[in-house]
Amino acid sequence: MTTVPQAIFFDLDDTILDFTGPAGPAWQTTVARFSGDDGGIEPTTVLATIDRVSRVW
Predict the structure, then answer these.
(1) Neighbours of 31 (CB within 10 A)
(2) What is the rounded CA–CA span in Å between residue 56 and residue 51?
(3) Considering its fold, how many domains does the chain have in total?
């Protein structure tokens, strides 16, 4: 049986969180809480991806 996530967080253009500003700790808290559970992606991978993608824009 597959479980459905309680929430999905999309912020495609930094309107909710500005990763270039002081949002780093918020991303870390959110990623630590919602990634890695039940065979999900490791939190360090998620944070590294957020960092890499945010540099493109």
Answers:
(1) 20
(2) 9
(3) 1
**Residue-wise burial string across 36-54, b where 16 or more C-beta atoms lie within 10 A, e elsewhere:** eeeeeeebeebbeebeeee
pTM beyond 0.85: the answer is no
Residue 35 and residue 46 in contact, taking contact as beta carbons nearer than 8 Å: yes
Residue from 51, 15, 12 nearest 31 by CA: 51
CA–CA dist 8, 5 (Å, integer):
7
CA dist., res. 56 & res. 32, Å (int): 23
| pLDDT at site 21 | 66
Q: Which domain holds residue 45?
A: 1-57
